Amino acid sequence: MPVPWEALIPFALLTTMFGAAGTLLNTSKRLQNQGKPVRYNVDAWDEMMMDRDRRLTGHKRGQAAEPFAPEEFETNSAWYTERTS
């Protein structure tokens, strides 16, 4: 059976474009996550920890190695407070 050589050029173009688009999307998502892979199946605990990391470091994927939180961490709580007086 003869091979339709004319069809190989569009096939190669489509394959290259899909590969380039996937690679660029993966690179973009990794750069947004500070080089770490994207998180899937995030539950409430993970969201709470990401919010804590965002408040500690300024980025949801950042982590701090200091044993104590900075002083401004006490005033930027995620919990809403109400006045008692």
Provide an overview of this structure:
The chain has a domain at 30-59. 46% of the residues lie in helices and 0% in strands. The protein has helices at residues 8-32, 44-57. It starts with 7 loop residues before the first helix and ends in a 28-residue tail after the last helix.
The level of helicity is 40-55%
Give the helix/strand class.
Answer: mainly alpha
Distance between the termini: 88 Å
The secondary-structure element order is HH
Contiguous low-pLDDT stretches (5 residues minimum) are none
Count of individual beta strands: 0
Radius of gyration: 23 Å
Biggest β-sheet description: none
Structural shape: rod-shaped
Task: Report the total helices.
Answer: 2
Overall pLDDT metric: 84
Membrane topology: Single-pass membrane protein
Pfam family, one: MWFE
Family: Belongs to the complex I NDUFA1 subunit family.
Subcellular location: Mitochondrion inner membrane
Descriptive key words:
85 residues, mainly alpha, rod-shaped, transmembrane helix, transport
